[in-house]
Amino acid sequence: MPDKRERILSSAEALIAQRGFHGISMQQVATRANVATGTIYRYFSDKETLLRCVHEERLRDAATAILQNVDAEEPSYAQFRQLWLNTMHYLQASPDSLCYRVQYEASPLFNREEERLMDERYFKPVHEFFECGRVKGLFRDLPAELLGFLALENLMLLIQKCTKGCIELNNDIYEQLLDASWNAILKR
Amino acid sequence: MPDKRERILSSAEALIAQRGFHGISMQQVATRANVATGTIYRYFSDKETLLRCVHEERLRDAATAILQNVDAEEPSYAQFRQLWLNTMHYLQASPDSLCYRVQYEASPLFNREEERLMDERYFKPVHEFFECGRVKGLFRDLPAELLGFLALENLMLLIQKCTKGCIELNNDIYEQLLDASWNAILKR
Amino acid sequence: MPDKRERILSSAEALIAQRGFHGISMQQVATRANVATGTIYRYFSDKETLLRCVHEERLRDAATAILQNVDAEEPSYAQFRQLWLNTMHYLQASPDSLCYRVQYEASPLFNREEERLMDERYFKPVHEFFECGRVKGLFRDLPAELLGFLALENLMLLIQKCTKGCIELNNDIYEQLLDASWNAILKR
Amino acid sequence: MPDKRERILSSAEALIAQRGFHGISMQQVATRANVATGTIYRYFSDKETLLRCVHEERLRDAATAILQNVDAEEPSYAQFRQLWLNTMHYLQASPDSLCYRVQYEASPLFNREEERLMDERYFKPVHEFFECGRVKGLFRDLPAELLGFLALENLMLLIQKCTKGCIELNNDIYEQLLDASWNAILKR
DNA sequence: GATGAATGAGAATTCATTCAT
DNA sequence: GATGAATGAATTCTCATTCAT
């Protein structure tokens, strides 16, 4: 059974999505993964480690989704548009992932250094895009992470609000928001 | 000691800030507040209620801070600037408050309807400012909440990142961010 | 307020009847009696004492009800019939009282010596009736308490079963049971 | 140790006998059974379930004891005598069982329907004996449960009184009581 | 490697009792 | 006498983790 680790991870993911960050027990994860409780501890030294791994897994998935079809050869706006739409679609398709991330980052599990490393590892092309635009004088003279934040990351909270039902979006609003993001980072 | 309720609330706040939303026990809250465990239950029917009250308290404080010195008679940009700076300063001064809110809103405690009512109650002037600008044709034709979100609320995640040490800010960056926010909502 | 003690007692009775022997708190008793929690302790040294007093109160009421219209001048069977019917009616009218008594007597509160004293105090005429019949050679040569038990006290469990819905009674059955009781104690 | 469930059950039984139906904690049960608190919850989902199981277990044991050596081929009186003596001996040998049952039936745990099912399951032969006698015209024309009650079940309260020390019995009295029970149910 | 029964510390909550006012 | 806020030990139940098989 080469996929036991995988099964455990995805069980944890699914359960957290359903019941919230702290609403799951190792027993539940084990049951859903069709393994014994003790088995989890062969793959993850403790619950914290398991949660960290889920986090990294999701981050990797997110990066993959967001970078899909982004071609560094294309013009900046086209790339930006693709990035923005990818982000939006990914967040809407996986609201749980978002909910998990927000809680994880606000929790004591969150570790600045590890986060930076993962960002580096998975989101390098995104940072490079913004850095490149900054150097070319297209974007504001802000650190790439800040540009990325202004343009993409704030969608996280926004989509969370939508998921919770506070705000409703439609295609017209999408375009406006995309435009607003673009204008936020453009140098004047 | 007429302020026992107050002491309990602020103990809960402080502990959540230190140990995270789910990392606190009623015992700890009681000990820190210098009351007996049972005493908490005279003031809050259960843990959930206590957490909800902390949330509302914080929201009220935040609204007060953010609306300070905002004068509806002044020009739009002046008002916006004041709102933005107030928000920024409040968030920086009370990073715990922020951390709490993000966790609360991602938790199962969060209830859309109650949230809407509280928003209405405490942040009405903010919404009015954005609505007014929209009607005048100054801001994009987006719902006031979305404008508010684009301009102010996304600072939440940003400051959280700063607090966690991922990004460093300075006065120059402030001005850039303020400007970026302004440009994000302006009608072109 | 001369009746505060009385109010506390009857609140306790009523609550126990509604929620069972151990389902009541002193707070609830106090609230229902319209007194402060502490006030109960001016009249009853502790919960146990309160429960004992309720027990005695009920026993006295039961004795009064059972002895109503029993005339020592009348023939034995007439007296017996009256006793039996009184008992039956009392138990049916106050199933709570019964429920309370059964639980009390099975609980560690129950004290043999006190019980004997109370029996003596309140049920003397009943015992005398059976003793008298025994001496006359009408009833079996058994201790009066046993005769009383065979004739009357076993109705307690029976009525409890009825109250719980296990058995249904009607007038014809009454007469049969009355007759059965009479035959159980008669000397042959 | 394959009998952990058994140990828990009998610890609960013993403690209830000692301290009363409501005077036991899961801790105490666990300690007496030499298991950890949590272990109880592997076998019984909660305290209520544990108490219900003790009840059923005892009922089954009682039925077994009471039906011992009762032969449906023998004459009615012989069967009755055996049933009555079995009941008496069982009750005297297991006064705790009795005490438990009375408290259980008076408690909110008691459920009419479940009780009927258990009665059916375990005491069917007893009911059949009485029903059969009724049909033959030997016993009073009363429902079998009532005949059973008059003949046997009222011994419960009686033995309880003896156990508590209110009444003393001897062999002569046994015979008298047995005879009284027989006469109570006989058709005249 | 895998299992899952067992563990027991720790959680939320209740409630008999006290005592300053 | 009366009050009722405060107490804190005790209760039921959960769950991360271990370890004999």
Automatic annotation (TrEMBL), chains A, B, C, D:
Residues 25-44 bind DNA. Keywords: DNA-binding, Transcription, Transcription regulation. The keyword Transcription applies. PROSITE patterns: HTH_TETR_1 (PS01081), HTH_TETR_2 (PS50977). Residues 2-62 form the HTH tetR-type domain. GO terms for molecular function: DNA-binding transcription factor activity; transcription cis-regulatory region binding. PANTHER family: HTH-TYPE TRANSCRIPTIONAL REGULATOR RUTR, HTH-TYPE TRANSCRIPTIONAL REPRESSOR FATR. This is TetR family transcriptional regulator. It comes from Oceanisphaera profunda.
